[in-house]
Amino acid sequence: MSPGDHILNLIAKELGGRATAEEKQQLQQWQALDPSNRQEYEELVTMWKESMRLTADQSFDTSRAWSKVEAGMQPVGQNPAPARTITLFSSLYRKRLAVAAAVLAIFIIGGYLWNHYRTSWQELAAANNNQSLQLPDGSTVLLRKGATIRYPLHFDGEERLVRLSGEAYFKVQRNEHQPFVIVTGQAAVRVLGTTFVVKANNASDEVIVMSGKVSVSSKHKAGRQVELSAGQRTLLQNDQFLQSQVSDSNFIAWNTGLLDFNHTPLEKVLREMQDYYEVPLEIDTQQKAAISALTVTVRFNNQPVEQALEEIRLITGLAMKKEDGKVVFYMK
Questions:
Q1: How far apart are CA 110 and CA 52, in angstroms?
Q2: Where are the bilayer-spanning segments (predicted)?
Q3: With the CA atoms of 23, 24, 26 and 30 taken in that order, what torsion angle do they form, in degrees rounded to the nearest 10?
Q4: Which of 138, 175, 215, 307 is in Cβ range 3.0-4.6 Å of 190 for a Cys bridge?
């Protein structure tokens, strides 16, 4: 997230040596919340130093400018004031003018650099369909419909940082000297080079590793993290990790179009079909205990939702009804 006015004010006060101990602590806490916050802070510090360097390189001919001002201010017919008074006042004014010019230059240059920093980030939203993207380092991303990714034009920092909301498949180019970090609402996912899926929403984050190794850490609980290898998945919810093994490839069905079930409990089948077809599916609450024991063996390959639901009905012998915008399975 971009720093708000309050954080920018704290950073400015710290750089100017005016931040209190409490304000410094607030700034440290903000940096600890999110790896992207730390990176933004470091980039703003860099911009500040660059502004100071560029300002120091400028030469302001304040003496010449002040002489012209003095000449223009002298009233007609009035004798000039004592030279010592003019010299003292002129010296003080020139110092103030130089300081004002330096400060103005810092704001102008710093403002330009900050604007350049903000516009150097790109955003891609998969509004209506899945969208593919190649990042500056050659890594590839496939966004599921509804997902959004933000990424820089160049990976110049110590980390290759991107931000994600929604679901996406990543194939990351290996670089041991510059880790790849995905920041979501709940977590930071860190890798060197691997393939995996990240599903991020407001309530939870899920990471499924297809190859390589991935580190997932909570943004809200310092030190809480898990390491995943190929064939493992984790769900981060309420700052708690729930790990399990990957038993099928249905998690990537939104890309492949394949849903494969082999003696799978009906409740799990409906949950994964709901995720793929984006249609609410339920088991009748009063019959849930009996119906949940049913298992299903079936394979869907890009089949329309109506056809897939009809197959489930025939396999299980259950009936279907539409109720409050949901499809409900029940026993007659």
A1: 9
A2: 97-114
A3: 140
A4: 215
Largest CA distance in the chain: 112
Where b means 16+ CB within 10 Å and e means fewer, 32-52 reads eebbbbbbbbebbeebbeebb
Q: Are 293 and 316 in contact (CB under 8 A)?
A: no
Which token pair is 70? 């003095």
Buried b (16+ CB within 10 A) or exposed e, 213-234: bbbbbbbeeeeebbebeeebbb
Question: Under DSSP, is residue 231 helix (H, G, I), strand (E, B) or coil?
Answer: coil
The identity of residue 157, as a single letter, is G
Tokens read off for 87: 């010299």
What structural domains does the chain harbor? 5-70+80-119 (no CATH), 122-245 (2.60.120.1440), 250-330 (3.55.50.30)
* pLDDT per residue rounded down to tens, the chain (332 residues): 456 667 777 787 787 777 888 888 888 888 877 777 777 777 677 666 555 544 455 444 545 544 544 444 444 444 544 444 445 445 554 555 455 545 544 554 455 455 555 547 899 999 999 999 999 999 999 999 999 999 998 888 888 999 999 999 999 999 989 999 999 988 899 998 899 999 998 889 999 999 999 999 988 777 788 999 999 999 999 888 999 999 899 999 999 999 999 999 999 999 999 999 999 999 998 998 888 889 999 999 999 999 999 999 999 999 999 998 999 999 98
Compute CA distances 270 → 144, 205, 208, 222, 328, whole Å. Answer: 20, 21, 20, 36, 10
C-alpha 56/C-alpha 53 separation (Å) is: 5
d(CA 75, CA 263): 101
Q: Say how many Å lie between the first and final Cα of the chain, rounded.
A: 52
Contact at 8 Å (CB) between 189 and 167? no
Neighbours of 197 (CB within 10 A): 21
